[in-house]
Input
Amino acid sequence: MAPTDQTDVRPPATWGSSTVHTACPLDCPDACSLAVKVEGGRILEIDGSHSAPTTNGFICGKVRKFDQRVYSSERVLYPSIRRGPKGRGEFTVVPWSEALDVIAERMQLARETFGAESVLPFYYGGSNGLLTNEMEDARLFRRFGASRLARTVCAAPTTAAATAMYGKMAGVAYQDYAHAKLIVVWGANPPASGIHLMAHIKQAQKSGARLVVIDPRRTPLARTADLHLPVAPGTDVAVALAVIRALFDTGRADDAFLNAHATGVDALRAAAAPWSFAEAAETARIDEAHLRLFAEWYGTTSPAVIRCGWGQERNRNGGAASMAILALPAVAGKFGVRGGGYTMSNSSAYGLQAERWINTPESDARIVNMNQLGRALTEFDSPPISVLFAYNCNPLSTMPDQNRVKLGLEREDLFTVVFEQSMTDTAKYADVVLPATTFLEHYDVARGYGAYHLHLVQPVIEPLGEARPNHEVFRDLARRLGLVDADRDDALGQAEGLLDVTANLPDAVAQALSAGAVATGPAEGLPIQFVDVHPVTDDGKVHLAPDGVATTSGLYAFQPDPATTDYPLALISPASAHTISSTLGELRPGIAKLKMHPDDARARAIEDAEAVRIFNALGEVWCEVAVTPEVPPGVVSLPKGLWARSTENGATSNALVPDTLTDMGAGACFNDARVQVALRAKH
Ligand SMILES: Nc1nc2c(c(=O)[nH]1)N[C@H]1C(S)=C(S)[C@@H](COP(=O)(O)OP(=O)(O)OC[C@H]3O[C@@H](n4cnc5c(=O)[nH]c(N)nc54)[C@H](O)[C@@H]3O)O[C@H]1N2
Ligand SMILES: Nc1nc2c(c(=O)[nH]1)N[C@H]1C(S)=C(S)[C@@H](COP(=O)(O)OP(=O)(O)OC[C@H]3O[C@@H](n4cnc5c(=O)[nH]c(N)nc54)[C@H](O)[C@@H]3O)O[C@H]1N2
Ligand code: SF4
Ligand SMILES: [Mo]
Output
């Protein structure tokens, strides 16, 4: 558990020249261990360290250049108050005390005028560790009685599915992929979105394992696969159910496993019955022979592991798809061996919780779904949203129905606080901007949701300008609002807060953490499903047709494609290697390119590199086109996380994304955007 490389465990007392050990808390499954070279209090180089087993000294290009973001001219360094019109980004610097006094006054005024629910905290915190999201902030907003936020922008359908079926059982460790003979990468793109799985996939391939990739795009990983199923977005439920039906029909279902460890088998079999290979292949727009081959391989190969990502969840059928995929290893009897089973999110593996620190029960204030922020800002009236407090999030860039969000942010009677590291598109609409520290300037606890790593994040440099960590700022504000506990000090991020969050961890893990070492997961980080870890359900079984699971369409139901004759193309917006969600988007050069299949381009007389307009009833995006067979006919793709500057008209894919919700978990339907594309005269 000790760091294996020659890095300092503690930050340097003198801020001299040294290499400091820390960890990456960004929204990425890998939670890398980092070695950061610092000289004279300035970051010289950020690299991977060897403390975390799967980091292995190697990190992504994004974090390697994170110092450019830390020292960027667009960094928010001082509290400031708006002077120009909303959205213009013109501010006057003010002292912290003045900025916080103004915010406290506006929150109190909102409470007196409309009630406490007229204040909406807006955060996601995917790139935050455990000490900087839903800690001091949760305590403040619960005590104040603010509207509650449903944190549904990501992983809502997959979490609903995995919780109902397996109680979020821990998944197959990255290292164990080397033992698999068949690897199915389903709705995930690890070469961009979780790079440390790749070494283990390659190792398995070298030992003869087959790779199947299920993704609309012919990604670089799909090109190295033995089989690629380029499913139409939103059709995975049909594909998975067809394989399940075939497993039952051919006697390859593992009846012994199902009898002993599963409930709901008959209901699942009935849901799969309508899905012949022909029907599913037609629905998913894939080759029927390829689908049969996949079913054959999955039915006959062991160990087989499914890496299930989030690509299949971001549409109307996201819950049903995730459930059908997670049912596969149970039906086919793939558990119980090293390298067999599934990996989805391992975020629950450590059982961490912050409730003791928050020390305040949830209020019964109304719940606002974050995916419908635009609606909340423009339509709610009992009470309206009067104060929006955005932090750990960049909603104008990342939430559905961007134009409606923008309309909301433009409201003159809305008071918006944005607590940020960078002058994001959202921050430009703030009435008050507060400067936040980055993970290189504060304490946190980072937890992998793919790799089994849990470690301490510690400051490697002093905060820039007047930037402050979240807990200090929320504490200061709570004090102004009279909501603090007199007997608590400000030690969060150090011993007390850390120990509270980690209170239910085994002692050894908690000690390793406070000493700056890496803790691995359950069973030394390499659990075998149904041997070392089991479903965390009431009866310890997998629930294939869970009772009481909330779905808007019925278990395993398929809802047809929302395309229309006016808007026939499916726009998807997958993760790119350049940003983490919208973080680092400020460093992206040039105008973004829409990927489009040659057939679709020809039909519209569009040629490579031309200027195009992507549009639907919600909005339009002006950018360039890259004509490529990487996307199938009928599908176009723009990167996720773009800032306004990356397009010619300042709108990004989310201007075309409806704020409809997924079948389970009330998640975002980013990939249900249906659009038309046309040539645009260049300006
Ligand atoms: N570099 C980088 N890494 C990231 C992120 C990032 O923005 N950049 N984001 C982080 C976050 S917040 C998350 S949640 C994870 C996401 O991690 P992933 O799930 O791996 O990433 P996505 O790009 O959302 O989706 C994966 C793939 O699903 C495909 N896809 C789209 N629609 C469908 C569909 O209907 N069915 C199927 N089978 N596939 C589909 C996309 O083409 C894409 O290649 O990555 C994290 N890591
Ligand atoms: N079109 C489309 N849109 C998508 C997706 C998609 O697939 N397609 N994916 C969605 C997904 S998976 C996700 S997870 C969301 C993520 O969406 P967001 O949660 O908005 O994530 P980021 O864009 O990374 O913005 C996080 C912001 O928090 C700030 N921040 C980081 N740490 C701190 C801190 O300690 N304190 C404070 N005060 N601020 C901090 C960062 O500077 C950054 O600007 O985006 C979603 N948006
Ligand atoms: S973003 Fe992911 S791959 Fe990059 S350093 Fe952080 S944890 Fe590692
Ligand atoms: Mo995400």
Notes: DSSP finds 22 helices and 27 strands in the chain.
